[in-house]
Amino acid sequence: MQVRFWNLYGHKQVIAGIIKYYGIRGKSYAGQTDSPMETMEILGMITLSDYLKTTFGCKVYKIAINAGFTCPNRDGTKGERGCIFCSAGGSGDFAGDPAQSVSRQIEEGKKLVGSKIKDGKYIAYFQAYTNTYAPVEKLRELYKEAIDHPDIVAISIATRPDSLPDEVLDLLEEINAIKPVWVELGLQTIHEKSIRYIRRSYENAEYDRAIKELKRRGIEVITHVILGLPGEREEDMLSTVRYVADSGADGIKLQLLHVLRGTDLEIEYENGLFEALTEDEYIAILKKCMRIIPDGMVVHRLTGDGPKKILLAPLWSADKKHVLNRINKEVIG
Ligand code: SF4
Fold it and tell me: I want to staple 277 with a disulfide (CB 3.0 to 4.6 A). Which of 39, 186, 281, 291 is the partner?
């Protein structure tokens, strides 16, 4: 089996993942090559960066953008306080400045990694809040601004399954015909008790419908899952991963629950209502997740680091290098 490792340090952000498949798929994947090469060589892994270089002829980085959206979970449509874990930055704490245009944010993002690469290419990652939650003409303008940039090879759009009406789906199909579009859906969990607790405010059926409609239009889908939600046992997390594995999603992001300051989750945590996962617990769960994820599904993230300034727990996750090394050795290896 060939395991392809993908390690992104995009826009100050660390995203680690692997791609599990046999042979080359016909899609373009983005990654960055600051991966711990020595570790990978020890483990005999093949870097995805080689594949990316072959596909794009250069390195590819992800630039996180804040295009000034809001979210139905925040603007009063479905709720006002957002998901319980969501920071004031709308889960886009590493994204650019919404006061700047998309093009400007791309240029600023390029500056951050420009010293590491020359002539690299980029994925524009519409990350903060709900990035399909606007009139379709506004969305067209924003996405077009990104794909018209000569250094952008694809766009990735984070959103909610209940914010994908037909006209937006059609727009995504239109853009996808020009440059690859990935849609990232925040599922987080499939369990009703947890869904209510985190105030996700949409049904699993809406996720199923979104996947079906996106796939029908040939759009790549990545599903976000949070490991360590309060009250969830290991088996609950694994059944969520199993659900995603069977859902038709092309990729998955596994995210350790972070308790961030200023969120309602902080209050729960400070009141002792739950404990964050320990590092050993997280690694053990990740190993089990990897056994569930089918060949052909891309793992875009195996951890994630909350912004240090507002990270309350678990603090062990702030030591990115150490965590990635453990994941390399114990999960991927
Ligand atoms: S849907 Fe996303 S942006 Fe909206 S509140 Fe939840 S995590 Fe935050």
Answer: 281
CA distances to 63, 103, 118, 290, 306 from 99, rounded to whole Å, are 16, 12, 27, 40, 23
The token pair at 230 is 């309060």
DSSP secondary structure, 102-114, as one string: HHHHHHHHHHHHH
* CA nearest to 185, candidates 149, 165, 156: 156
pLDDT of residue 93: 79
Q: Helix-strand-coil percent breakdown of the chain, rounded to 5?
A: 40, 20, 40
Task: Determine the distance separating the centroid of ligand 1 and the alpha carbon of 87, expressed in angstroms.
Answer: 9
Percentage of residues in the chain having pLDDT higher than 70: 83
Q: What pLDDT sits at residue 52?
A: 59
Q: Helix (H, G, I), strand (E, B), or coil: what is residue 257?
A: coil
Pocket test for ligand 1, best of 78, 91, 126, 265 (most atoms within 8 A of CB): 91
Ligand 1 near 95 CB (within 6 A): no
How many domains does the chain fold into? 1
CA-199 nearest atom, ligand 1: 6
Q: Does 89 sit in the ligand 1 pocket, CB within 6 Å?
A: no
Ligand 1 pocket check for 252: Cβ under 6 Å: no
- Bond from prior residue into 165 cis (ω within 30 degrees of 0): no
pLDDT of residue 231: 97
**Residue with CA at minimum distance from ligand 1 atom 2:** 129
82 Cβ below 6 A of ligand 1 = yes
- Residue 148: which domain range? 3-332
Q: What are phi and psi of 271, to 5 degrees?
A: -85, 5
Residue with tokens 């290991």: 234
Ligand 1 centre distance from Cα of residue 86 (Å): 6
pLDDT of amino acid 56 = 66
The domain spanning residue 287 has which CATH number? 3.20.20
Rounded to the nearest angstrom, the distance between the alpha carbon of 285 and the centre of ligand 1 is: 24
Name residue, tokens 């903060």: 128
**pLDDT less than 70: residues of the chain:** 1-56, 305
**Residue 137 is encoded by which pair of tokens?**
């003409």
